[in-house]
Write a structure and sequence with these properties.
This protein has 357 residues and is of the alpha+beta class. The chain has helices at residues 3-12, 19-28, 44-66, 94-106, 130-139, 152-166, 171-182, 187-194, 198-210, 213-219, 227-234, 244-254, 257-260, 264-277, 332-356; strands at 71-74, 79-80, 112-116, 124-128, 143-147, 237-238, 241-242, 280-287, 293-300, 304-308, 313-317, 322-325. Among the domains are: 1-29 and 42-151, Conserved hypothetical protein from pyrococcus furiosus pfu- 392566-001, ParB domain, CATH 3.90.1530.10; 305-357, no CATH class. The chain has 15 helices and 12 strands. The strands form 4 sheets. Strands 1-5-3-4-2 form a 5-stranded mixed beta sheet. A 3-stranded antiparallel beta sheet has the order 10-11-12, with no helix packed on it. Strand 11 and strand 12 form a beta hairpin. Helix 3 packs across helix 4 (94-106) and helix 7 (171-182) packs across helix 9 (198-210). This is Plasmid partitioning protein RepB. Residues 44-71 form a coiled coil. InterPro entries: Chromosome_partition/occlusion, ParB/RepB/Spo0J, ParB/Sulfiredoxin_sf, ParB_N, Plasmid_partition_RepB, Plasmid_RepB, RepB_N.
Length: 357
């Protein structure tokens, strides 16, 4: 018998009923077609992603079963979220709607992980599986879960690692999660929780601290927006605040119904474009010789930056350097392409320079 079959047979013995093959079949079986108009064509990829996540979560289930931990049915009203939030709430989440419909049709395939809530008998606190819990609660169904005694630190590490392994949080959600953890826990614990090194953890925390959380919550998780563009957004804030003219423009935009109807990524783009195009008028006060206060208007120069192509490359120019940035999260293939072409571009430039001489 080959090694692959040996592993499969060993895992099968951990499960009752149909064994591993049955669980994989359940998780990968085609889902019933959704009613017309329930979710638009633009969200089809989100539905596919949800199915991929279920497959990944089977790995977690395997390890739980291997430790002889029982799966039980819990009343959703007796379950509460983690004491540190890791997600932004949005008015409409197509992926959540797809998950809810999947659970309604085929049941909850993968259990959540909970612990007995401290000082609350009969109540359980979620380490991970918040969306599954919310879906079951909305459907009025029991939620299947694994109960495990966890300390606060163990719960947060399990919560952070699960999201990191599944790449389930957006960049800014990860920043906020790190920022919240940093209020009460040492950096060493945060490093374990999200699986990043100390340097990056520090950068994520500082970026989240640059912008008010209320501002970030209005924009939302923006799953397609990576670090370079969030850093550009943060550059407009000083001591956690926008310049008066920028703040006025942003507040007006936030008040529009048409803005609130946009998806999170679109909201981000609208806000960043507004900040780029609006001069930041600052009031500078200086004392005159006779003691009176003179007020003068000053316009802060917006950074000389622009996007090339369809948000492929961000170009920033200063007196000292011209910096080209590629979002490695959303344009990784283009970044690799650009690196491959760079030697030829440099050679072409040198050849042109030689001809001019």
């Amino acid at each position: 018998m080959n090694k692959a079959k040996d592993r499969k047979n060993a895992l099968d013995t951990l499960f009752s009923g149909g064994g591993m093959a049955g669980l994989v079949a359940d998780a990968t079986a085609p889902r019933p077609r959704m009613s017309s108009g329930a979710i638009g064509a633009a969200e089809i990829n989100l539905i596919k992603d949800e199915r991929d996540k279920l497959r990944e979560e089977l790995k977690t289930l395997n390890s739980q079963m291997a430790s002889s931990v029982n799966v039980v049915e819990l009343d959703p009203e007796q379950v509460q979220p983690s004491f540190v939030a890791d997600r932004m709430e949005v008015a409409f989440d197509p992926a959540f709607e797809a998950l809810k419909e999947s659970i309604a049709e085929t049941g909850q395939q993968v259990p959540i992980l909970v612990r007995p809530a401290p000082d609350q008998a009969g109540i359980y606190q979620i380490a991970y599986g918040h969306r599954r819990w919310k879906a079951c609660r909305a459907l009025g169904k029991p939620v299947r879960g694994v109960i495990k005694e966890l300390s606060d630190e163990e719960l947060l590490v399990a919560q952070g690692q699960e999201n990191h392994e599944r790449k389930d949080l957006s960049f800014i959600e990860t920043c906020l999660f790190v920022f919240r953890l940093a209020q009460d826990y040492p950096q060493t614990m945060i490093v374990k929780a999200i699986g990043k090194d100390k340097s990056l953890v520090s950068k994520l925390r500082k970026l989240a601290a640059t912008m008010p959380e209320e501002f970030l919550r209005v924009i939302g998780p923006a799953p397609k927006i990576g670090r370079p563009r969030w850093e550009e957004m943060a550059s407009f804030f000083h001591d956690g605040k926008l310049a008066p003219n920028h703040e006025k423009a942003v507040n007006s935009l936030f008040g529009l119904d048409s803005f609130l109807e946009l998806h999170s990524d679109e909201r981000f783009s609208e806000v960043l474009q507004l900040l780029q195009e609006t001069p930041a008028e600052l009031e500078i006060k200086s004392a005159s010789r006779d003691g009176e206060v003179a007020v003068a208007a000053h316009t802060r120069k917006t950074k000389n930056s622009e996007w090339l192509g369809n948000k492929h490359v961000l170009v920033k120019r200063t007196d000292k350097a011209t910096v080209f940035s590629v979002d490695s999260k959303t344009k990784s293939d283009f970044g690799a392409f650009l690196l491959k072409q760079m030697p030829a571009l440099i050679a072409e430039f040198e050849e042109t320079k030689g001809e001019d001489a």
